[in-house]
Amino acid sequence: MPKPMQKKQRQQRSDPRHKECPFCDKGAKYIDYKDYPLIKGYTDYFANIRQRYYTGVCLKHQKMLRTAIERARFMGMIAYRK
Amino acid sequence: MTPVIDDTDLDTELDLRTYELCLLYGYPIQQKEEQDLLKEVEKLFTEAGGKQLMRDAWGRRGLAYAIEGQMEGSFVIYYYEIDPSKVREIDHALSIMPGVLRHMIVKPPKGYAMVPYANRLEEWLKEKEKLEEDREKKKEEALQKRITEKAMMKAKKVETDKKVESAETKKPMKKEELSTEIEKLISDDNLGL
């Protein structure tokens, strides 16, 4: 008799890939460029846009975030490069 | 017979769209100049048949990088309902206008709720301060907890040490008793060793 298949145990450590999108939780339909203190949190020290992998933002909202950041950068609210 | 639909009203309704204008001009500016500049901008829109929905003046803000040698500027945000074909002209006129550092005309998405952002910065700063205060409080509480736990552990250790010491002090007495008993046992002749 073959042994029954054992279920693979999930690793308990916090995996960055299993984060939830903070914008999806709020049900955001649009990310405003005027909301620049909020957007600033999604850029790193050198003012680059943080990767989705680390922030947990979904693709749909990452695209909105990118446009918002680019607009805010153009208006001088956020730096292009530090 | 084909029904005749009078779509002139429909057209006029469809032609109008809401646009958002973000305007940036230098901060050290005289009041009169500022008023003239804003009047000119508003005039552009009114000439194009626009209808102002909202005006949101942010006031003085620091810039992230120098624009035309200025590190400070003031923002004004307008919401207008205008004909989309006239946006290009306004955009061009704004790019030529002296005194304007940056401008951007954006089409907000459908169902966009116009919210004034003028006082938001202060709110954000307050929130930030609060968060920092909470963090510091938590840190202090955690520190105090650790200190009290350490003190408790020390007290427990001292108690256990005392018990051990008391037990050790009793032991030599027992040894003497033991030796006497052993001697008694040895001296016993009845033991069948």
Description:
The complex is a heterodimer of chains A (82) and B (193). The longest helix of chain A is centred in the C-terminal third of the chain and has 16 residues, at 59-74. Chain A is elongated and about 65 Å long. Chain A is built from 4 helices and no strands. Chain A is mainly α. The termini of chain A are far apart. Chain B has a domain at 14-109: Ribosomal protein S6/Translation elongation factor EF1B (Alpha-Beta Plaits). The model of chain B has no long low-confidence stretch (mean pLDDT 87). Chain B has a 4-stranded antiparallel β-sheet, covered by helices on one side. Chain B is α+β, with helices and mostly antiparallel strands. Chain B is rod-shaped and about 135 Å long. Chain A binds chain B through residues 29-30, 33-35, 37-38, 71, 73-80, and chain B through 22, 24, 61, 63-65, 67, 73, 75, 77, 101-102, 104, 106, 108-109, 111-112, 117, 120-121, 124.
Topology readout:
The complex is a heterodimer of chains A (82) and B (193).
Chain A: H1 22-26, H2 36-40, H3 52-55, H4 59-74
Chain B: H1 8-15, E1 17-26, H2 31-47, E2 51-67, E3 70-82, H3 87-96, E4 100-106, H4 120-187
Biggest sheet architecture of chain A: none
Sheet/helix structural class of chain B:
alpha+beta
CATH-assigned fold name of the domain at 14-109 in chain B: Alpha-Beta Plaits
Most extensive interface between two protein chains, with residue counts: A-B, 16 and 22 residues
Sequence stretches where pLDDT stays below 50 over 5 or more residues of chain B: none
CATH H-level superfamily of the domain at 19-74 in chain A: Ribosomal protein S18
Percent helix of chain A: 25-40%
For CATH, the homologous superfamily of the domain at 14-109 in chain B is named as Ribosomal protein S6/Translation elongation factor EF1B
- Following the backbone from N to C, one meets helices and strands of chain A in this order, namely HHHH
Biggest beta-sheet profile of chain B: 4 strands, antiparallel
